[in-house]
Write a structure and sequence with these properties.
With 336 residues, the chain is an all-alpha fold. 56% of the residues lie in helices and 2% in strands. It has a two-stranded antiparallel sheet with strand order 1-2. A hairpin with a 2-residue loop joins β1 and β2. α8 crosses α9.
């Protein structure tokens, strides 16, 4: 009896780098993934951007943008006019002075900021995606102004490149409006931060908004205690420290005030890092009240200082630790 496995479509396969899924799939757009898969499948062919676009129903600009996306992420590299895997090493000439033990330095291009999609891509996507188009309509109502082409491209970027669902973007918008920061710069900054944190569901977004709200409330309480008045919104450091002091370490108002006063007495000015260091030390010692702190410091002050002990070859007498000239004269230079 003979056996045969019918592999069907599995008789023809090609390799996809693991990093595509592990690192890039959450921010790669549909067109970027399509172009990469097409290039991997047809790696032995010479295709132009127009030919790839015809096969995938994409414009030549979309194909080029997708190729640039993977080059920036070190999946592909360009030598002259040909593409190749970025991991592939260039052959070293026999007369090369580069030592084998020294790895070649790789040129790496980083984006200074996130790239917005081009108008053609935005227009095509909005025609196909009624939910995204509806989100933009609602945003105009919340912001009480029409969105500019740049504003629209920013939202499309958060949706398509960073993978934020429409409902998550809308929750973020309403939160920023509630704190008086509903502008496109804030929406872009927080949207990218949420994408980096993996906040991609309504539940995750609601939990993050709850955390951010508690941090702001904590800073409001701390700033009132310390008499600090911010111009504009609190900084990230202020919110994080206040949240730590009140919600994590759970210090009372009087302990935070005490740390502030000690900071000013020592440094001569308000220093949030110094206050945090004081509170951290108290937290690690389990000191949560002024009464406990006073007892701790009183016990430390009452603790007698240890007297100097006389040892072999010591040149000091026991009484009063005075200098013993006779012992010094009898001591050898090489004694321990």
């Amino acid at each position: 009896m003979s056996y045969q496995i019918n592999l069907g479509q599995w008789t023809s396969v090609f390799v996809v780098p693991s990093s595509v899924v592990d690192q890039h799939i959450k921010i790669a757009s549909e067109s970027q993934l399509k172009v990469l898969l097409y290039l991997l499948r047809h790696s032995d062919e010479d295709n132009s951007a127009e030919q790839i676009g015809d096969a995938l129903r994409l414009s030549a600009d979309e194909v080029q943008n997708a190729v640039d996306f993977w080059i920036e992420r070190d999946l592909l590299t360009k030598h002259d006019s040909a593409l190749a895997p970025a991991a592939a090493a260039r052959p070293v000439a026999a007369d090369s002075h580069v030592k084998e033990s020294e790895p070649a330095k790789k040129s790496h291009t980083t984006m200074s900021r996130a790239q917005r999609p081009d108008p053609m891509f935005v227009s095509k996507l909005l025609q196909e995606n009624t939910i995204l188009a509806g989100l933009l309509e609602e945003m105009q109502k919340v912001l009480n102004k029409p969105l500019s082409p740049g504003d629209t491209a920013t939202i499309v970027m958060l949706y398509d490149s960073f993978g934020l669902p429409c409902e998550v973007i809308f929750l973020l918008l309403n939160y920023l409006k509630s704190i008086g920061s509903a502008n496109m710069r804030a929406i872009e900054r927080f949207g990218i931060q949420w994408a980096d944190k993996g906040i991609k569901t309504v539940n995750d977004a609601e939990q993050e908004i709850d955390r951010m709200t508690k941090s702001r409330e904590a800073w409001g309480r701390v700033s009132s205690l310390l008499g600090i008045r911010n111009v504009g919104n609190p900084t990230k450091a202020q919110m994080e420290n206040a949240d730590r002091w009140l919600n994590i370490w759970q210090f009372s108002d009087e302990m935070i005030t005490e740390a502030y006063e000690r900071c000013v007495n020592t440094k001569g000015t308000y220093n949030i890092s110094y206050i945090n260091a004081i509170l951290k030390r108290w937290y690690e010692k389990g000191i949560k009240s002024l009464d406990t702190l006073q007892k701790e410091e009183s016990a430390k002050q009452r603790k007698p200082k240890s007297k100097a002990k006389s040892g072999k070859g010591s040149v000091f007498s026991v009484e009063g630790a005075s200098f013993d000239v006779s012992k010094y004269e009898n001591a050898s230079l090489f004694d321990d």
